[in-house]
């Protein structure tokens, strides 16, 4: 190669290298979660109940973090703290309670509580549905969603006589259901269910 060409290459090489570097995509590592973001996942209105599974995370304290089961008595067991009341609280309320108790052991503890499995909220289906028995509720579950989760009505179901049994504030209610109208899109008739409701589909 002639000396002149070597000189030209030497002149342009640094600029070519800089251009290549500026155009290579860089896989930046995802920013680490902050305590504020972690706590934000717990700020919902769900009320914890027995048999729910919770994920408790203590910021920068992996030995104090993990999944815990809410026992039938409504308590959970945590390292250092022992038994803590969980049932009847929202995740955010429970996180605050755990943080207060941990102040004896951890400086400025930041705690988040997330519902990983819901088992305390169930409704029951009886009669002419494909799968009878309890089904776990999803937040805001409606009549149609529950029946769909149970596999739908059988060929022998009397859709005009479906009703919901509900115990609330010590009173026993029988709520008539307008199933076909709800299917047509009338959202007012697609009732939102409550834990413990029993949907009865007569023959």
Count of helical stretches: 5
CATH homologous superfamily identity of the largest domain: wza like domain
Number of separate structural domains: 2
Supply Rg.
29 Å
- Based on Cα principal axes, name the global outline: elongated
The major beta sheet can be summarized as: 5 strands, mixed
What is the CATH C-level name of the largest domain? Alpha Beta
In the CATH hierarchy, the third-tier topology of the largest domain is known as: wza like fold
Instruction: Give the termini distance in whole angstroms.
Output: 95 Å
Indicate the percent of residues in helices: 25-40%
Secondary structure tally: strands:
10
Structural class: alpha+beta
Order of helices and strands: HHEEEEHEEEHEEHE
How much of the sequence lies in strands comes to 25-35%
Q: Give the strand line-up of the largest sheet.
A: 7-6-10-8-9
**Can you tell me the CATH architecture of the largest domain?**
2-Layer Sandwich
Mean pLDDT, rounded to whole units? 82
Can you walk me through this structure?
The chain is of the alpha+beta class and 203 residues long. It folds into two domains: 83 residues, wza like fold, CATH 3.30.1950.10; 80 residues, Outer membrane lipoprotein wza domain like (Outer membrane lipoprotein wza fold like, Roll). 25% of the residues lie in helices and 25% in strands. It is built from five helices and ten strands. The chain has a five-stranded mixed sheet with strand order 7-6-10-8-9, with helices on one face. The longest helix is centred in the first third of the chain and has 21 residues. The protein is elongated. About 20% of the residues have low confidence.
């Amino acid at each position: 190669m002639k000396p002149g060409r070597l000189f030209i290459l030497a002149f342009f090489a640094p600029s070519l290298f800089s251009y290549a570097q500026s155009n290579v995509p860089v896989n930046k590592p995802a920013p680490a979660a902050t305590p504020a973001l972690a706590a934000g996942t717990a700020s919902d209105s769900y009320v914890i109940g027995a048999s729910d599974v919770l994920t408790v995370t203590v910021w920068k304290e992996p030995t104090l973090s993990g999944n815990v089961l809410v026992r039938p008595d409504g308590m959970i067991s945590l390292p250092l703290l022992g038994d803590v009341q969980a049932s009847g609280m929202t995740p955010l309320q429970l996180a605050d309670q755990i943080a207060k108790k941990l102040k004896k052991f951890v400086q400025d503890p930041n705690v988040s509580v997330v519902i990983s499995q819901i088992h305390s909220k169930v409704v029951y289906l009886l009669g002419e549905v494909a799968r009878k028995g309890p089904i776990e509720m999803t937040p805001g579950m409606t009549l149609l969603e529950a029946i769909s989760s149970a596999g739908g009505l059988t060929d022998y179901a009397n859709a005009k006589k479906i009703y919901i049994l509900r115990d609330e504030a010590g009173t026993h209610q029988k709520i008539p259901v307008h199933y076909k109208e709800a299917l047509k899109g009338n959202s007012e008739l697609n009732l939102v269910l409550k834990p413990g409701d029993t949907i009865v589909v007569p023959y």
